[in-house]
């Protein structure tokens, strides 16, 4: 392995650990981030000449620690004395945390704290845990680099000023806080899976890969958590279909038209294994476990006609009980159309009109059901509405083709 | 750290037929919450405020002091009262604020002191 590869690999494997251990020691995310970045820059310089150290992670942590101490001395601020004390001693009592005593987990919970705006949580998590650069994150969310920099700076300032703790939440708060972390990762994944910009690629595999990598990390840190396992399974089973999801001409290919031979077998196998593992525990499944199970049913069918739709509807029934939102009801209706026919499904979809008037998938679903019922004129109108609201270019292309196929 | 917990009235007092004060039930719940803050060592200070119509805005920066009848900004929402608490971090402050919000039946803003 070349020195450059070794740095890239260490960056992937050790970045979060280095930032987290500095954040813990110095109580300052800014300092932790900058010193970690400096340590990696030093590795880029030194490793080709001096050779890759036997323990890259330890080398980076030690170098980053030195950089942080240099920085504190250089800054020579009024609060120097306080910081100097931190530099000299690390005698803070370490609260017992059992199996999940890992600084990276503290870092994740801090970045995904509910007192921060969602967009700040996403940006902070990608920067401090994922190690993405500011320009990479700005590009991912189509905002100016300066605006993204400001967002991250403000979030770090709020963490410091408001006293957001660097801590794993108490057992009592853990489920809710974990679900907050998963929401951040799912947002990153979805932005990759269904990129929303007019000028971006319809699928951003850099973002889906990053979301999966971070979810794997959280799974390694919280192996007993069912929803974390469910989220990982869900992402893997969606990611597995990516090769079949956009046609050569850049059009979205829906599940019923996908070339199932192009699906990624090993991701499907891993996703199915996770779903089975969760089922075997006998514990009541949460939202992400149910979504993963639904995707497991889809990916078990080698042909769309083999899909066990009644199983899909049954899983959606469970999901509706946990999450009675109109979007879940809409997805349930799509499965109902396969079991009980488009007529009944349309009745159910129509009930959601008020809540989902601005949601492109509502109109796309309605259009599809109307088309299947032979109500072409209404279907055409609904496709038009869906195209107007669709943010994803490949999806808009797919809807336009469906509309143009309509006769009469 | 110390936090200011501001109580925001969005018409609750008016709906209860009062200009600005809390109902007897709300007062009782607030008393109970205050007792808990004191017993557990979070308490610094707290108070309920008179209504915005009792406010006077003053600008003393010029040659003569300018007084205006009323609050500095006219809104339907107004600051009805506040707590100042001492808490180790925001998580603890937010938890207490959620209980305070329930007790006084109003929305609450949590802000750290500098």
Explained architecture:
The complex is a heterodimer of chains A (408) and B (114). Chain A has 408 residues and is an all-alpha fold. Chain A folds into four domains: 3-90; 103-168, Arc Repressor Mutant, subunit A; 175-307, no CATH class; 333-408, Serine Threonine Protein Phosphatase 5, Tetratricopeptide repeat, CATH 1.25.40. Helices cover 70% and strands 0% of the residues of chain A. Chain A has 20 helices and no strands. Chain A has helices at residues 3-26, 29-50, 56-75, 80-88, 103-111, 118-129, 134-140, 145-162, 174-193, 205-221, 226-239, 265-281, 287-300, 309-322, 326-340, 342-350, 353-356, 360-372, 376-389, 393-405. In chain A, helix 16 (342-350) packs antiparallel against helix 18 (360-372). With 114 residues, chain B is an alpha+beta fold. Chain B has a single domain, classed as Dimeric alpha+beta barrel (Alpha-Beta Plaits, 2-Layer Sandwich), CATH 3.30.70. Helices cover 31% and strands 32% of the residues of chain B. A four-stranded antiparallel beta sheet of chain B has the order 2-5-1-6, with helices on one face. The longest helix of chain B has 16 residues, at 24-39. The termini of chain B are close together.
Task: Throw out a few tags for this protein.
heterodimer, A: 408 residues, mainly alpha, 4 domains, B: 114 residues, alpha+beta, Alpha-Beta Plaits, 4-stranded antiparallel sheet, two-stranded antiparallel ribbon, 31% helix, globular
């Amino acid at each position: 392995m070349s020195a450059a590869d070794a740095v890239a690999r260490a960056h992937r494997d050790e970045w979060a650990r280095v930032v987290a251990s500095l954040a813990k020691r110095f109580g300052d995310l800014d300092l932790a981030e900058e010193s970690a970045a400096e340590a990696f820059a030093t590795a880029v310089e030194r490793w080709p000449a001096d050779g890759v150290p036997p323990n890259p992670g330890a080398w980076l942590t030690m170098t980053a620690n030195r950089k942080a101490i240099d920085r504190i001395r250089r800054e020579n601020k009024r609060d120097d004395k306080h910081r100097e004390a931190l530099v000299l001693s690390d005698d803070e009592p370490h609260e017992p945390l059992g199996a999940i005593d890992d600084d990276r987990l503290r870092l994740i919970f801090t970045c995904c704290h509910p007192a921060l705006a969602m967009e700040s949580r996403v940006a902070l998590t990608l920067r401090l845990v994922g190690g993405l650069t500011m320009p990479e994150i700005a590009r991912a969310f189509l905002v100016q680099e300066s605006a993204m920099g400001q967002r991250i700076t403000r979030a770090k300032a709020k963490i410091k000023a408001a006293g957001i703790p660097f801590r794993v939440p108490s057992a009592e708060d853990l489920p809710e806080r974990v679900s907050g972390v998963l929401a951040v990762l799912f947002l990153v994944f979805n932005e990759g899976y269904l990129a929303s910009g007019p000028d971006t690629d319809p699928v951003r595999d850099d973002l889906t890969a990053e979301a999966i990598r971070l979810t794997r990390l959280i799974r390694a840190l919280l192996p007993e958590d069912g929803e974390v396992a469910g989220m990982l399974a869900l992402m893997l089973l969606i990611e597995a279909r990516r090769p079949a999801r956009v046609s050569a001409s850049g059009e979205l290919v829906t599940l019923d038209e996908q070339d199932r031979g192009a699906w990624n077998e090993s991701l499907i196998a891993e996703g199915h294994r996770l779903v089975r593992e969760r089922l075997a525990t006998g514990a009541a499944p949460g939202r992400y476990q149910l979504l993963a199970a639904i995707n497991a049913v889809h990916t078990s069918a080698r042909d769309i006609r083999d899909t066990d739709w009644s199983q899909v509807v049954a899983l959606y029934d469970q999901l509706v009980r946990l999450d009675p939102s109109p979007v879940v009801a809409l997805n349930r209706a799509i499965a109902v159309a396969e079991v009980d026919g488009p007529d009944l499904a349309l009745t159910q979809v129509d009930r959601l009109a008020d809540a989902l008037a601005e949601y492109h998938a509502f109109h796309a679903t309605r259009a599809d059901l109307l088309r299947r019922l032979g109500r072409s004129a209404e279907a055409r109108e609904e496709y038009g509405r869906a195209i107007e609201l669709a943010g994803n270019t490949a999806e808009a292309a797919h809807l336009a083709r469906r509309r143009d196929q309509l006769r009469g | 750290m110390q936090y200011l917990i501001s109580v925001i009235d969005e018409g609750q007092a008016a709906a209860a037929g009062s200009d600005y004060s809390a109902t007897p039930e709300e007062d009782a719940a607030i008393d109970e919450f205050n007792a808990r803050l004191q017993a557990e060592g979070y308490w610094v200070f707290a108070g309920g405020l008179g209504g915005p119509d009792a406010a006077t805005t003053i600008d003393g920066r010029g040659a003569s002091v300018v007084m205006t009848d009323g609050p500095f900004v006219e809104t339907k929402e107004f600051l009805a009262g506040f707590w100042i608490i001492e808490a180790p971090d925001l998580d603890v402050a937010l938890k207490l604020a959620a209980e305070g919000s329930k007790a006084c039946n109003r929305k609450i803003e949590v802000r750290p002191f500098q």
